[in-house]
Amino acid sequence: MLMMTKKRSLMAKMKVDNCKKEIEVYLSSYFKDKGVYNKLIYEASSYSLNIGGKRIRPILLMLSYDLYKEDYSKVIPMAAAIEMIHTYSLIHDDLPAMDNDDLRRGKPTNHKVYGEGIATLAGDALLNESMIVMINFSLNHGEKALKASKIISEAAGAEGMIGGQVVDILSETKKSISEDELKYMHLKKTGELIKASIIAGAILGEAPKEDVEILNLFGIKLGLAFQIKDDILDVVGKVEKLGKNTKKDEHMNKCNFITMYGIEKCEVLCKTLTDECIELLNRLSVSATYLKTLTFNLLEREY
Amino acid sequence: MLMMTKKRSLMAKMKVDNCKKEIEVYLSSYFKDKGVYNKLIYEASSYSLNIGGKRIRPILLMLSYDLYKEDYSKVIPMAAAIEMIHTYSLIHDDLPAMDNDDLRRGKPTNHKVYGEGIATLAGDALLNESMIVMINFSLNHGEKALKASKIISEAAGAEGMIGGQVVDILSETKKSISEDELKYMHLKKTGELIKASIIAGAILGEAPKEDVEILNLFGIKLGLAFQIKDDILDVVGKVEKLGKNTKKDEHMNKCNFITMYGIEKCEVLCKTLTDECIELLNRLSVSATYLKTLTFNLLEREY
């Protein structure tokens, strides 16, 4: 169980808020004043990149780095690269040929504003830009940055996030999918990039090998808890808070944790995973107050 | 003017053929036996990656490296990364929301076989895979590989190929575009990745700085000549050789070099650019027989 004073909890909240603020300042100015004839690609990319969101992945990278090194501002480009990857995946996921969503974070989706062609290219541009950012960071920060880039790009790829999206698309045409397929889908689609954010931060912070292994397990469980909570909110959440239509998966006969286990079992599962996450963080060689608070907040969130 | 014996020309052809063969062996086995539930993404990616094509970009990288170092087999992964980027751009370009093409290299386009959702993801997966390949190569080959990766990823991005594609999409809604816009579009859409292939090869081969600068100019002119030749073939070429429908740009009222200058002027322009390319290659510190032959062949090609 977590023993934490009110003051500590408040400090943790401030830290997370600061991470979020810093990453958003970086992202909002990233494409500013860029482009000539191609200006529209920066406008479309910026639109989705700065539409809001929890910024979980970049915050996790920064907090994980912060366990071992001071001044997490130094790794903001790497944190931003992850958010670019996450954002591109949302733009492509929302396309009519994929999830066909009109609303994302309470605003029209990218293709609803810029058309499908530009939205496809904006997604491509964000994935490509994440590559440029990671390569430039690696040129300045050597091998540990390159290793972190490897973790991130593999997590985003066909064996990671994209692999999960493929199974997601395939599952829509099936009446039911196996428990193994469902777990695979979520571990890959949501979990891999969350896990990679944590490990990349630790590698950039030159964490001891044992800690990286613990954080790897922590990342898997956190990613799964995060996805189950998302599925729960999709059933019981409020549209105005979520900024997207709820029960969408159900309407589309999509398999998720709720349709597989029922809501009560999911709530227990989510709680158990969160406890296991805290347990793992307690085994690190350093104190992980901020990461613990973030873990609790992800479970308690309403959107 | 090029002075070359028949024997030299034959040797050059063999070299180019060998490069092509080696890159195709690498690409055809790259995704083999990969995947579990996500197997379809590898099937779809492989389909377009191994559908044929001239392999100009990887061959250029290998020949450019070959100017300075022996055993161009060593840089095959980097050459493959470029072909993955080129292939992803074709898959996305062919989508109904973009060029809406049913035929590519004489075969059904990716989305015609796998559907739009999987085709979008196959494109994403190939771009992402190129990133993984370049990062792994850089981990094994140090800074020069990372610098070459930077050149390639910037050429593929919003300031490069994607930027050109955006202007291409925008030009479709206009009645006419300016000469500057047309040049920008082609320099970026086709030219940047061709230029990057050449420069990346030279950097990997540790070419002297002066040579890299000459090859930069060579790359710009070659990319432009290549695109003008493509536009010419689009009007006068044979469907069975091109493997795609011709005069498509004209039907769609698209601006290209032919609609801008007329076919005769384009043929002169193409010839002039090729001569200038050879002139530049003559200024290198090393002999560039193979690159010269390839340059001539690109001008003389019928598809």
Characterize the structure shown.
2 copies of one chain form a homodimer. Chain A has 303 residues and is an all-alpha fold. The first copy, chain A, is built from 14 helices and 2 strands. Chain A has one domain: Farnesyl Diphosphate Synthase. In chain A, helix 3 crosses helix 8 and helix 9 packs antiparallel against helix 13. The first copy, chain A, is globular. The mean pLDDT of chain A is 91. At the A-B interface, helix 2, helix 6, helix 7 and helix 8 of A face helix 2, helix 4, helix 6, helix 7 and helix 8 of B.
Element layout with pairings:
The structure is a homodimer of 303-residue chains.
Chain A: H1 6-30, H2 39-49, H3 56-66, H4 76-94, E1 103-104, E2 107-108, H5 110-114, H6 116-156, H7 161-172, H8 179-204, H9 209-236, H10 239-242, H11 248-251, H12 257-261, H13 263-282, H14 289-300
Helix pairs in contact in A: 1-3, 1-4, 1-14, 2-6, 3-4, 3-8, 4-6, 6-8, 7-8, 8-9, 9-13, 13-14
Brief description of this entry?
The first copy, chain A, is mainly α and 303 residues long.
**How many strands in all of chain A?**
2
- Arrangement of strands in the largest sheet of chain A: 1-2
CATH class of chain A: Mainly Alpha
- Greatest interface and its residue counts? A-B, 58 and 59 residues
Task: Tell me about the largest β-sheet of chain A.
Answer: 2 strands, antiparallel
CATH superfamily heading of chain A: Farnesyl Diphosphate Synthase
Cofactor (chains A, B): Mg(2+)
InterPro entries (chains A, B): Isoprenoid_synthase_dom_sf, Polyprenyl_synt, Polyprenyl_synt_CS, Prenyl_diphosphate_synthase
Family (chains A, B): Belongs to the FPP/GGPP synthase family.
Keywords (chains A, B): Isoprene biosynthesis, Magnesium, Metal-binding, Transferase
